[in-house]
Amino acid sequence: MVGVGLIGTGFMGKCHAMAWTSVRTVFGDVGPVRLVHLAETSAELAKQRADEFSFDKGSGDWRAVIEDPSVDVVSITTPNQFHPEMAIAALEAGKHIWCEKPMAPAFAEAEAMLAAARRSGKAAVLGYNYIQSPAIRHIATLLGEGVIGKVNHLRVEMDEDFMADPEAPFNWKHAATSGYGALDDFAVHPLSLVKALFGRVASVMCDMSRPYADRAVADGGRRPVETHDIASVLIHLDNGVSGTLLVNRSAWGRKGRIAVQIFGSKGSILFDQERFNEFQLYVTSDRPTEQGYRTILAAPVHKPYDRFIPAPGHGLGFNDLKTIECRELIRRIEGKPANLIEFDEGLEIERTVHAMARSFEEKRWVNVR
Amino acid sequence: MVGVGLIGTGFMGKCHAMAWTSVRTVFGDVGPVRLVHLAETSAELAKQRADEFSFDKGSGDWRAVIEDPSVDVVSITTPNQFHPEMAIAALEAGKHIWCEKPMAPAFAEAEAMLAAARRSGKAAVLGYNYIQSPAIRHIATLLGEGVIGKVNHLRVEMDEDFMADPEAPFNWKHAATSGYGALDDFAVHPLSLVKALFGRVASVMCDMSRPYADRAVADGGRRPVETHDIASVLIHLDNGVSGTLLVNRSAWGRKGRIAVQIFGSKGSILFDQERFNEFQLYVTSDRPTEQGYRTILAAPVHKPYDRFIPAPGHGLGFNDLKTIECRELIRRIEGKPANLIEFDEGLEIERTVHAMARSFEEKRWVNVR
Amino acid sequence: MVGVGLIGTGFMGKCHAMAWTSVRTVFGDVGPVRLVHLAETSAELAKQRADEFSFDKGSGDWRAVIEDPSVDVVSITTPNQFHPEMAIAALEAGKHIWCEKPMAPAFAEAEAMLAAARRSGKAAVLGYNYIQSPAIRHIATLLGEGVIGKVNHLRVEMDEDFMADPEAPFNWKHAATSGYGALDDFAVHPLSLVKALFGRVASVMCDMSRPYADRAVADGGRRPVETHDIASVLIHLDNGVSGTLLVNRSAWGRKGRIAVQIFGSKGSILFDQERFNEFQLYVTSDRPTEQGYRTILAAPVHKPYDRFIPAPGHGLGFNDLKTIECRELIRRIEGKPANLIEFDEGLEIERTVHAMARSFEEKRWVNVR
Amino acid sequence: MVGVGLIGTGFMGKCHAMAWTSVRTVFGDVGPVRLVHLAETSAELAKQRADEFSFDKGSGDWRAVIEDPSVDVVSITTPNQFHPEMAIAALEAGKHIWCEKPMAPAFAEAEAMLAAARRSGKAAVLGYNYIQSPAIRHIATLLGEGVIGKVNHLRVEMDEDFMADPEAPFNWKHAATSGYGALDDFAVHPLSLVKALFGRVASVMCDMSRPYADRAVADGGRRPVETHDIASVLIHLDNGVSGTLLVNRSAWGRKGRIAVQIFGSKGSILFDQERFNEFQLYVTSDRPTEQGYRTILAAPVHKPYDRFIPAPGHGLGFNDLKTIECRELIRRIEGKPANLIEFDEGLEIERTVHAMARSFEEKRWVNVR
């Protein structure tokens, strides 16, 4: 029996709640889950959400969750700036944690989080759920088998359009206090895929730009935008492979695109998160007259798709990826092998992001470590 | 508080369990759900599944579920042949029912089910979940608004390949006792979309064929296949629109395809269930030099996508459609307007299937009613 | 040296002129071509076009072309109603002919054309150029090799939108005198592909419909439309394979679609003329975890693509198909094996179209022969 | 009457011959073209090709073509290293020239070619035919109209797989004497599109890599590869727009891909040369519930598609782009406005390529000028 605590009930909080609710029904192979205690900014809202999400209790103070002896693991889904304090407190209280990414605005805080995790000996897992899709997991298998030979180049793009409207007023994401912009806002996602499929980034050369120099503010004037919606990065991996990472949160028409192109000595693989129930494979072992990209639909043969649906081509959803992650987390807590990004590799991702920002600042290649 | 009973815990049984488990967390606007009682073929299996699916009780006799006073609504997910007895018993016991499609192998049995539903005054809902996707629901809205003008032609295809392997041995679906073949096995799905988008079918002209004349049996011999994996049907709708319905369960490469093409006087719409998080729209109001099919990704603006994810292009899964259906069912039970196919329209779909089979038999156009 | 005559210099006349102009440069392996004599409706226009198209001579009377002793082969590209007289005269004058499809409005006339061809012993070839694309030719090879096993089902669609606008006034194609509508207007194209890939059609069951009941005429009133823009046909081939042929010339958004789906016991093949430089292949010999449709781009390995471009994926155009056809015609004239639809099979295609029309009229299955 | 000379009859030579042969038939609005004189490496081969390509004469010495008084314009399609001598000689002989790209291996030679062109006052045009496709030309129009607002970011990729096979032996393109590798081998193509759509590149930051360190040589040993098949470049345009240019000639599965992504303040545009008869447009002026990328097929409304085919969606071929270029060249010769890349902008493209190579060498941002 796993006792669950939840801090924050917004988009990701609800997402965690759904995952905790469904995980045993979907997988069957994990122990019972009890939804014990959630926290929101007020006791009233907490109670309402506890009711909606079927938690036993709701409190207006997140410390109540962390101190609850029935809670074994705490989902932390609050804004990034609150992660360090909550995560460290939970770890020190002997709880496992499942924390949304990125770890923290400042690198030193993220380091402190990792240190706390190491001291506690508890699972400290980050919510990089894109690595959990059956397609991405199968691509990892194919790479391991050498189906496309030795990988020699990599291109990754991540694009959305939630910052694309020049008429939208200045908000906190346009202020330098929020971070660099697209880099920390979502380049961490494609970096989690790079990590899952290839390993660590060794060095980076980054350019950034602002589509819109300023934006309207409430008083009728305009304020300069301080963050960068676009980042384009040349990368070298530890294993010597070269590549590019291009991100843009002002890309009209793109909604949840994470496009990956992997080139090897015997073939290539394409993937796009907007259609994450499929991927494309080109192999030179096909007869030359019939070589072409195969569009492969996720199916029960691509684990753990089969735990959701026994028929191919029917499609998992975004929330299902979180349910897979939740099951990996439970396995991790139970001491079994698990496919996750924990604080050590999460910190490495953030180190990479900061190196990119420094590269842009200094207009030169920067080594990540 | 809705008390839930569940009969059958296979693919669709699990699917119902997941929907009942998640519906309140996802939607927030439905009352609490209590998973009361499930039934399986043995008490032992029932207990195991009750544990996995978080039901209070499990019984080896489905009548125990129906007689349980804490049960308000019964999910019936057993093989089709058991639907009539169970559904009628449940309705007579004063339960609402959520029954998987099709209703029954024989039309008379389906009629008896409808009669029982009418007598009971309870909700009697069928599991046609494909009508629930945000894309299909938005297409219905667009048709209602006349965005593509007056519809004048319709093409629907449904194809999978689970019967495509000629080396697979003879099984019960190849015997005439199982029904007609692709027609009742899955033509009911595209017919649910036709119903949801356009209304009833008036007349049909059907052809059927067998890709493989016979199949291996256990004793080493071969047995003639008695059902038809392929059906191609010319249709006229009640509203005068002509169209075609083509189904094939031996279509290598197709996994969960339900391809819809809708032609109107001012545009057209395309949809494919294999990529049900998107649809395509062509409208003549675009400037001639830029007319083309728009690929529109499901997004929060397409209700109720927003209840699952607040960002566009992230994708729902097959099971999410069942959760939407579950919420509609609860609304129906609560006496609110709901988007569902109940026994009356379900019977109409089965009447249409039987008319198709008769048309093939008699090699002529047949009126459905 | 082949001496070329051309009757008609509209769309298809220009298309023939371009093919005759380019064929030797492209293929190298055909003898010299001399553009001798073309005819238009007036001597003046004929001269202008002879100048533009680099023909030696232009006449206002088509008989001058047929009687020209330097002309060996005559391209006939006039409206269908003129084909019989011109083709028969040319054949009787000892010329080979390259005649645009369909042969003639009335079946008896087409029969007379075939009889004339047989009497003359000359090549009498129809302009079914879609069978010439490298993709279609390679698909024929794959079918012959049994790459997708034994074919068991076939779906063909042809859709364009040139008749889709309800505001367009009544024109000659809406009058019964022009024929049946979509059936003879363009169903002959997909039938040429059926012929090239599978052979003859044995029996048909056809439905037709009119998207728009009437259209505006010049005097301000409206006139009933007499032809059918939509035809949907169930078909059985001579080889026992079942299929469907669906055509629609009022299909908003479709521009030059000829979509083919071929299902076999070991795989399937997809093709769409709107992207005729590619096709899709699914084979069960691929490992189950990587089975999917391969998108194969036309390449030099798909003959005779290499005669146009030595690099893959660069793309042939519609007019190039005509150039390939022209080279096949020259080979035919030279007595070599050639891939063409001549009058005998052309007549068979028209027999099939008339059978479809009769089936619709009589609401029953009709045998083509 | 334009008298045409041709030097070289390989792939591009044949391509020029086909363009010169067809241009008047296709366009009608250009004067007569006479194929006067071609040159090959031997008199014998030259005569054979003159026969095949319908030229009046063939010579074994290219100077004979340049000195032929009937020749007005010379197509130069020999390997790059011969361009400077031939181009300068032809210009000095008072001929217009149509020279394949890139101009020359060394920048100083390219400069000399431009100087010769300026002295002569003749047309000196480069064969950048990708800018001629109806889709690209229409995209330029849309950008000019501001349909996607102010462009703020650009991504261009060019990928083929002709160098992807690690088993292929060392050839001249692997030697440093051939140039940098992918950069000069084909990055010039996407740069021609950047030039046509946006203008000049201001500064670059380039990374290059080698998929295969060495390759087999004839004596059984292996030789280190000296050129780079992969180049990834961060770019800033003169107009301030940022972007990336990524090229890879070892990209298994890619055949003729030139993928362009253009992001603006009101929409975005996508294009891929592998399907150059279409492009995609996203605009925010569409209703939010129906915003999506439109796939727009090339049609007669996209000039000069109509000169080839009067129906939409039927598709031009690669060689047709050369015919369009040829017509622009004739217009240029006739003193009319023409859409071409001449030596001045061609030199700019090569300056950009050399700046990229220097950036890679020096690991820093380099200004092009």
Could you say how many structural domains of chain A there are in total?
A: 2
The run of helices and strands of chain A is EHEHEHEHEHEHEHHEEEEEEEEEHHEHE
Characterize the biggest β-sheet of chain A. Answer: 9 strands, mixed
* Number of DSSP strand runs of chain A: 18
Radius of gyration of chain A: 21 Å
What is the top-level CATH class of the largest domain in chain A? Alpha Beta
Structural class determined from secondary elements of chain A: alpha/beta
**Spatial order of strands in the largest sheet of chain A:** 16-15-14-13-7-12-11-8-18
What share of the residues of chain A does DSSP label as strand, in percent? Answer: 25-35%
Distance between the termini of chain A: 41 Å
What does this protein look like?
Chains A, B, C, D: This is Myo-inositol 2-dehydrogenase. Chains A, B, C, D: Residues 137-269 form the GFO/IDH/MocA-like oxidoreductase domain. Chains A, B, C, D: It comes from Mesorhizobium hungaricum. Chain A is an alpha/beta fold and 369 residues long. Chain A folds into 2 domains: 2-126, NAD(P)-binding Rossmann-like Domain (Rossmann fold); 131-311 and 342-367, Dihydrodipicolinate Reductase, domain 2 (2-Layer Sandwich). In chain A, 34% of the residues lie in helices and 26% in strands. Chain A has 11 helices and 18 strands. In chain A, strand 13 and strand 14 (267-272) form a beta hairpin. In chain A, helix 8 packs across helix 11 (343-362). In chain A, 62% of the residues are buried. The model of chain A has no long low-confidence stretch (mean pLDDT 97). Chains in contact: A-B, A-C, A-D, B-C, B-D, C-D. At the A-D interface, strand 7, strand 8, strand 11, strand 12 and strand 13 of A face strand 7, strand 8, strand 11, strand 12 and strand 13 of D.
